[in-house]
């Protein structure tokens, strides 16, 4: 996952951030450090806490996987400290207003009681939690500063659209419901009492498929997304029509077509904003990756491999 994406996910998905965000900024009396980045250290305790969240004790990983996870974690911790070092050098700050706004988002996501319980369990106090959120916001602020030059012109977006035009064709789709049972005789009996109005109810009562809880609803699908036996039937039916019994390797099926959508091509105007966001995200990540590589070259980084 891209580094910028990791930061954005931690900040924007309030519940996820609250439960999984690290305690790397917490006060730690342990003088034993694993990593030193310029004038900042990551202590052994901080590293182990982060590793525990990354590799839960109730999940099994091969030794090769653990080694790779540790490598990724170490790299992420170093990069975060490099970002924070530059943010401090530039005297960037996170205001109380910004901090309060982020806190409010998390409170709304959780509900007040759950929020307090999570804070108590993960951080011990609201102040420690606020320091972690302040740290994450500061990292994001520095990343925004580094990548602020990642601009996308309308011409670049149009070129991307033209080069990826096949991505903006939506094929013909059909929305259908299905009933599947184990015997032809049972299917024939069910078929006799079906109509468009009662199909969903009957599907919920008798169908053996997992979609029975939704009244047999298969949702919209295009050719190539369902077994060929299904498609051969439903794409011939009109909305509101019910098929005869269809035998497949899965059982005996009856289909109701609810709706059809014609193939369409999304025009540039309708997807322009999405394309610009996509290109800008890629460009921002490229700019940041180059910046972080340069910071690693000019910074003093000490890693105590024997403690990992």
Describe this structure in words.
This protein has 308 residues and is α+β, with helices and mostly antiparallel strands. It folds into 2 domains: 3-151 and 277-307, Orthogonal Bundle (Triger factor/SurA peptide-binding fold), CATH 1.10.4030.10; 172-262, Chitinase A, domain 3 (Roll), CATH 3.10.50.40. Helices cover 54% and strands 15% of the residues. The protein contains 12 helices and 9 strands. The protein has helices at residues 3-12, 14-20, 44-54, 63-89, 96-110, 112-122, 126-146, 154-163, 184-192, 199-206, 228-234, 268-298, and strands at 33-37, 40-43, 169-170, 173-181, 217-222, 246-248, 251-261, 264-265, 301-303. It has a 4-stranded antiparallel β-sheet. It is elongated, with a radius of gyration of 27 Å.
Strand order, sheet with most strands: 5-4-7-6
Number of helices: 12
* Total E-strand runs: 9
Strand content: 5-15%
The CATH superfamily name of the largest domain is: Porin chaperone SurA, peptide-binding domain
Poorly predicted regions are: 8-29
CATH level 3 topology of the largest domain: Triger factor/SurA peptide-binding fold
Largest sheet: 4 strands, antiparallel
Task: Work out the helicity level.
Answer: 40-55%
Helix-strand blueprint:
Layout: H1 3-12, H2 14-20, E1 33-37, E2 40-43, H3 44-54, H4 63-89, H5 96-110, H6 112-122, H7 126-146, H8 154-163, E3 169-170, E4 173-181, H9 184-192, H10 199-206, E5 217-222, H11 228-234, E6 246-248, E7 251-261, E8 264-265, H12 268-298, E9 301-303
Antiparallel strand pairs: 1-2, 1-9, 3-8, 4-5, 4-7, 6-7
Helix pairs in contact: 1-2, 1-7, 3-4, 4-7, 5-6, 5-7, 8-12
């Amino acid at each position: 996952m891209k580094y910028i994406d990791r930061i954005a996910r931690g900040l924007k998905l309030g519940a996820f951030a609250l439960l999984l965000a690290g305690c790397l900024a917490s006060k730690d009396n342990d003088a034993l450090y694993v990593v030193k980045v310029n004038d900042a250290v990551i202590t052994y305790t901080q590293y182990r806490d982060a590793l525990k969240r990354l590799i839960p004790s109730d999940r099994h990983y091969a030794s090769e996987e653990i080694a790779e996870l540790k490598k990724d974690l170490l790299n992420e911790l170093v990069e975060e400290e490099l970002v924070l070092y530059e943010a401090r050098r530039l005297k960037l700050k996170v205001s109380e207003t910004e901090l309060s706004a982020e806190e409010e988002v998390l409170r709304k996501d959780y509900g007040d009681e759950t929020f307090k319980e999570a804070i108590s369990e993960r951080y011990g106090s609201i102040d420690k939690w606020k320091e972690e959120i302040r740290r994450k916001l500061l990292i994001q602020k520095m990343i925004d500063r580094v990548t602020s030059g990642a601009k996308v012109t309308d011409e670049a977006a149009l070129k991307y659209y033209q080069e990826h035009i096949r991505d903006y064709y939506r094929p013909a789709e059909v929305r259908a419901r299905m009933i599947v049972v184990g015997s032809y005789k049972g299917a024939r009996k069910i078929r006799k009492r079906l109509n468009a109005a009662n199909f969903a109810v009957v599907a919920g009562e008798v169908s053996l498929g997992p979609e029975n809880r939704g009244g047999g609803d298969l949702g919209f699908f295009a050719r190539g997304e369902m077994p060929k036996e299904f498609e051969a039937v439903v794409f011939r039916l009109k909305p509101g029509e019910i098929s005869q019994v269809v035998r497949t390797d899965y059982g005996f099926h009856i289909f109701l077509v609810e709706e059809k959508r014609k193939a369409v091509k999304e025009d540039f105007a309708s997807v322009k904003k999405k394309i610009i966001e996509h290109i800008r995200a890629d460009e921002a990540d490229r700019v940041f990756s180059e910046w972080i590589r340069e910071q690693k070259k000019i910074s003093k980084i000490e890693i105590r491999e024997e403690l990992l």
